[in-house]
Amino acid sequence: MRVRDHKAAAAGLVIIVAFGLLAVLADVIAPSSIHQQVGPVFGPPSRGHVLGLDDSGADMLSLVLMGTRVSMIVGLASTVIAVAVGGVVGVLAGYFGGRVDAWLMRLTDVFLVVPILPLMIVVAALWGPSVGHAILIIGLLSWTPTARVMRSQVLATRERAFVRRAKAFGAGHMRIIWHHVFPRVRGLLVANSVIVLASAIFFEAALAFLGLESVTTTSWGTLIANAFNRAASSAGAWWAFVPPGACIALLVLGCSLVAMSFEDAGSARVPASHIFAGRLEVTRRDGQ
Amino acid sequence: MRAAAVLGRRLSAGALVTLAVAVGNFFLFRLAPGNAANLGLVPNASPELRSSLERQFGLDHSTATQLRAYLVQLAHGNLGVSFGNRQPVAANLWTALVNTVTMVVPGLVLALALAVITGVYAAWRRGSAGDHALRAVALTMFAIPGQWLGMVLLYGARGHLPAGGISDPFLTGTGLQAHLVDRMQHMILPCLTYALIVYGAFMIVLRTSLVETLSEGYILAAKARGLSNRLILRRHALRNALLPLVTLVGLTIGTLVAGVILVESVFSWPGLGEAIYNAVNARDYPMLQGAFLLLTVVVVLSNLVVDVTYSYLDPRVQL
């Protein structure tokens, strides 16, 4: 792993942790109640309200902070569901192989092909808008990439000597999976959950935008949706939608940075170009 | 001959997925509380009216009979009637699909052009400040939610460009030119938004692939033959580096669809995405069901096309 990757990963991690802290401390930091009108409709940013006011005259800074809490809860909870389901499916398919593998992968393939956001929309429209439903829907429909990654990694681990040795000593399947296979793929699961978190935050905002999250909920997604429905863009009230969207972009960016440095660390060989920027360069193929 | 057999197998696999989705679709909507007879479409209906409605809609038959009827009608292209405008869902969807394509194709072309230009530059000047800046921009574009970018652009262009729709119903100018200008003005913002949100992934993949291609032995061989960098880049490197982009399009069709839904919802562009948005808000289940099924078919077919294209472009890859 190169030094720059460490830096990028650290920056990404700092972003994620910072948002986590904001979510926990939201009600302590928030300057005023989100249900209280403290000024005119779409009041611009001022000394008292640095992010201005929304369409009901509530303080945007407080709204964004409280929205951070809901968005982070939805993102983390659905990530836990997705990674758990995907991890179990992937490990079982990879470890047992054969018919179990064939059926689980067929199921995974169907879910991989079906366009996920439209499916989420259909289910959410039928179940009715709520945060709990959003968590379940996002979690239960985002596990396929994790399952695939875990399966291929477990497949590679299964035939390793230490697993075969444990089997020869008479260890049961559960013991082998838990003590020998899982520790080898744990890191990958963590790397994968960062990617899932990013997409969960994305989906939360999308569902909220389509009116599939309860109107009384305050999340980054519903704040953007609300600003759109009250025509904040044409009213010139950029402060009503820029902050929550910037938060989403920043968090997703943080997740991408962490995920990318995991990927770079995974592939040891950094390709060396023979030519670039007009210079002829003959390098060793291992890039050292 | 073998290729035809493989293609046939892939087609039938795609058809199987579509069938699975159609059946799943049927039960998904069955699980929802209420049915067409008691959904409240007819307020204060008497029990007699309700049971007559149930007979009329065939809701008194067994689930298996209903499922068979649904699949048979589906095979005939009958997707039901929209609750919203009382038109056949299939006709509504066809209009919407045409509109979506006119928005998506220019958007994708723009995104691809931007990705090739910036990707080549970044790969060529690998490690330079320009490379880092361009990658940062691409990563940021990748992280931005589409609906939000649409609103930001809308804010920037307010008063200069139309805020939504596909054409101005109160257009005063007559003649082809006025109509074309009007259409173009309505297209700018949705196409630009769509291009920018899909651009990020395109650029990152292209750059990585180009950097890898430039390390191949045949690049060194071309250099040894004394070819100019420009020629090597264009004829030897870029052509091969474009391959992963085809895979990427295949892998991210779901994401591309999500972008369509969000961008069209922001700009009230009357395509499939806007149809879904409206169907959700009006609880227009036949439209929602039909749109979802159509999108699934589109995605399944695109995946197939991508695979076939890939094995055509790179004969080393067998279907």
Automatic annotation (TrEMBL), chain A:
Top-level division of the source organism's lineage: Bacteria
**Transport: present as a keyword of the record?**
yes
**Which protein family is it in?**
Belongs to the binding-protein-dependent transport system permease family.
Where's the ABC transmembrane type-1 domain? 68-259
Its placement in the membrane is given as: Multi-pass membrane protein
Organism, as annotated: Nocardioides panacihumi
Tagged with keyword Transmembrane: yes
Q: Which UniProt keywords apply?
A: Cell membrane, Membrane, Transmembrane, Transmembrane helix, Transport
Membrane-spanning residues: 70-95, 107-127, 133-150, 188-212, 237-259
Q: What is this protein called?
A: ABC transporter permease
Q: Where in the cell is it found?
A: Cell membrane
Automatic annotation (TrEMBL), chain B:
| TM helices/strands, residue ranges | 12-32, 103-124, 136-157, 187-206, 241-263, 291-313
Q: Which UniProt keywords apply?
A: Cell membrane, Membrane, Transmembrane, Transmembrane helix, Transport
Asked if the Swiss-Prot or TrEMBL record annotates the protein with the keyword Chaperone, the reply is no
Q: Name one Pfam family in it.
A: BPD_transp_1_N
Q: What family is this?
A: Belongs to the binding-protein-dependent transport system permease family.
Recorded protein name is ABC transporter permease
Q: Which Gene3D superfamilies match?
A: MetI-like
Provide the species name. Answer: Nocardioides panacihumi
Q: Where is the ABC transmembrane type-1 domain?
A: 97-306
Where is the major localization of this protein?
membrane
Membrane topology term reads: Multi-pass membrane protein
Q: Mind telling me which PANTHER family this protein's record contains?
A: DIPEPTIDE TRANSPORT SYSTEM PERMEASE PROTEIN DPPB-RELATED (PTHR43163)
Q: Where in the cell is it found?
A: Cell membrane
